[in-house]
Amino acid sequence: MPSKNNIGKKILIIGGGIHGAYIARYAAQNGFSVTLLEKSDFASGTSSRSSKMAHGGLRYLELFDFKQVFEGIKARDELFKEVPHLAKPEKFLIPIPKNNFFFKYKLKIGLMLYDLMLKNKSLKHFWIPRKNLNFQGFNSKSEDLEGCFVYNDGLMNDSRIVIENILLAEKHGATCLNYSEVIKSRKLNKQREITYKNCLNETTNTVICDIVINCTGPWVNNIDEILGVENNINLKYSRGSHLIFNTPWNTPSLFLPMPGKARYYFVWKHLGGTMVGTTEREITNLEENPEASKSEVQEILDRLKKDLPSENLNESTLYYSFAGIRTLPMRDRKSETGTVSRKHIWKMNDNVLSLYGGKYTTASWTAFEGLKLLSEHLSLKSKLVKKSEKLNLGIDALNPDLKKAVSHCLEKEHVKKIEDLMRRRLGVEYLPNYKSELYEKVITIVKEIKPLLID
Ligand SMILES: Cc1cc2nc3c(=O)[nH]c(=O)nc-3n(C[C@H](O)[C@H](O)[C@H](O)COP(=O)(O)OP(=O)(O)OC[C@H]3O[C@@H](n4cnc5c(N)ncnc54)[C@H](O)[C@@H]3O)c2cc1C
User: Does the domain formed by 10-47+159-232+338-377 have CATH 3.40.50.1820?
Assistant: First the structure.
């Protein structure tokens, strides 16, 4: 039962990415009166553009971020339990070249620490010497391979986890609006009046709230400015790009060192093909719809040619790319984005709670932490409950009953544009046969059910 103590406190959440969606759900479950406004589609910001890895953050161990890794592993395991249809465990191979003792033992120590934090000890890492490897695709001419470490993390469907949280928030009474952009704020006595624009018909509306939660990812400082709060958090932004190839990937996922850079890139199965990512390009201008640049595409293709020359991951099989913006709150003066901690920061100022940074896998923890801060700030006595809830709608890009899936999305999931449906609800846009076959198939169904959606 939601606490009576919270009922009546009006929370306005700005941003319908994973953080906004979790907060809306937990706040609504706990009896708050919740409105969430998203300027574009739910999950259209960073939360559909991640590497889709549910992970503890093995490489954060190099930054001695033990707490973050520990929380990451726990949050990852919670995802596997709560949304098993959208987040699944996955094995990753990390190849180790011969005579590279430093790299091997540094990684070994990291993996041992990772194991120490595991609840399920059967998921500990192990070593496969080269002669026992099933996967033969590594380039072994220039860098002879000693073997591979195998460790466990997971993969997820990022946009659908957002959508399911939005639907759960609504089930508990929240009002969640997409294509609703916050443009103005006015302080009333103890409250605020927030003006938002309907981006589909350009009309404006207002909402009155006791507290605002700013979950706008890379745009957090813009919204702070509209709200008139100044937290002086120095942010860095970096673009990460991913490529999808129409080559099916039927072997284990790979985690490959990026020589000369303190990071890895990955190769794994993604729906009908293979996904490879990611780059790390520091940027100063925020893009609304970031895209992979030519040089990023080339950087990945060059690496693949060197590392996996026989796997048919090249220009001729490349058919899709996407990019997202990482928001990195700076705690020190280090300038390399790859070595900046991924830990988020919450700030409460003038009844506005703003989130800087954050990671998808730990978003449920971060969201609940934010809600607790808000509750303390409002001196609410009742204990907040983090309630696990399942909502398996069985929708994914490979669903054989396309008509049922399309009609569910059109009726229940706030689809306003064809892109919402193809990219973030069904995910069919990522499939190799999208242009040749699926696009027309889905459009035919949409014409039958909701003809007005077609421009
Ligand atoms: C390349 C890349 C790879 C990543 N890979 C992983 C990974 O594998 N695993 C992992 O755990 N994490 C990963 N992350 C991190 C993760 O994706 C982000 O932490 C997470 O998606 C951020 O979610 P968010 O809700 O904070 O922000 P967003 O998803 O960006 O949501 C913010 C929303 O605010 C909206 N907004 C902005 N202005 C307004 C306004 N005026 N009015 C209303 N709404 C507004 C935006 O439209 C947007 O939808 C990755 C990030 C990147 C960039």
Answer: no
DSSP E strand stretches across 250-367: 253-258, 263-270, 273-277, 281-283, 318-329, 345-349, 352-356
Whether residue 370 contacts residue 83, with contact meaning beta carbons closer than 8 Å, is answered with no
**Cβ of 253 less than 6 Å from ligand 1:** no
In this predicted model, what pLDDT tens digit does every residue of 349-408 receive, in sequence order?
999 999 999 999 999 999 999 999 999 999 988 889 999 998 777 787 777 789 999 999
Q: What is the pLDDT of residues 315-345, one digit of tens each?
A: 999 999 999 999 999 876 555 555 566 689 9
Of 363, 319, 413, residue with least CA distance to 41: 413
Residue 455 has pLDDT above 80, yes or no: no
Alpha-carbon torsion 50, 56, 57, 58, what sign?
negative
Distance, CA 49 to ligand 1 centroid (Å)?
8
Task: Give distance in angstroms: CA of 309 to centre of ligand 1.
Answer: 33
Q: Report the CATH superfamily, name and number, of domain 76-153+235-337.
A: D-Amino Acid Oxidase, subunit A, domain 2 (3.30.9.10)
